[in-house]
Specification:
This protein is α/β, with parallel strands linked by helices and 191 residues long. The chain is built from six helices and eight strands; from the N terminus they run βαβαααβββαβββα. The strands form two sheets. A five-stranded mixed beta sheet has the order 4-5-6-8-7, with helices on one face. The protein has a three-stranded parallel beta sheet with strand order 1-2-3, with no helix packed on it. The longest helix is centred in the N-terminal third of the chain and has 18 residues. The chain is globular.
């Protein structure tokens, strides 16, 4: 824990299943439970890594909060303190939030949330290969429901690697995990 100087959450920390447009399974956690699990996760991060800078990049699942309010209570949505990050009190934990659709750049590595890249990302073999085909850069992305990796050497001998680390949501797409999907991680360690 002492060696960790930065933690970057690449989106979908929250699933917000109950706010999605999809049909809801009532057996899945309600919003109050999901938000409490996330709050405890943020507290644990801060406790275990007190010196680390924490950055939370917005994913498409966090966007569900704003979309829900825009559709159902637009006058409330624009009030101060109405973002999910305000509700989660991220300032208390010293968490910086990146809501813009742009990469976070660490050395030569681009960090994205997968929904920021052009559509069709997972069509070519896996998400990591799709990232390579769209960005031609070293990249790590959250968002996908499977972890994957892809390394490619260019004609000039330059090596590029891409990783899809899955999603980290508190819901973790329980129904998908129970069926055929494996390798859902949602985290990676970079040295």
């Amino acid at each position: 824990a002492e060696d960790v100087n930065i933690i970057i959450l690449l989106g979908d920390v929250l699933d917000m299943y109950q706010l999605s447009q999809w049909v809801k399974d009532p057996k899945n956690p309600d919003m109050k439970t999901e938000l409490e699990i996330c709050r405890r996760f943020l507290e644990l991060l801060k406790k275990e890594f007190p010196k680390a800078e924490i950055i939370w990049k917005e994913g498409n699942h966090e966007e569900r909060w704003q979309t829900y309010f825009f559709r159902n209570a637009p006058d409330v949505a624009v009030l101060p303190g109405m973002t999910v990050y305000d509700y989660m009190n991220v300032e208390q934990y010293g968490i910086q939030v990146v809501r813009e659709k742009r990469p976070i750049i660490v050395s030569t590595l681009l960090l994205y949330h997968g929904h920021e890249l052009p559509r069709g990302l997972t069509n070519p073999v896996n998400q990591a290969r799709g990232q390579w085909l769209r960005a031609t850069a070293n990249m790590v992305a959250g968002h996908g429901h499977r972890s994957s990796s892809h390394t490619e050497k260019t004609a000039t001998g330059q090596i590029f690697s891409n990783w899809s680390i899955g999603c980290l949501s508190t819901q973790a797409h329980v129904n998908i995990i129970r069926t055929e999907q494996k390798g859902l991680v949602g985290a990676a360690l970079c040295r």
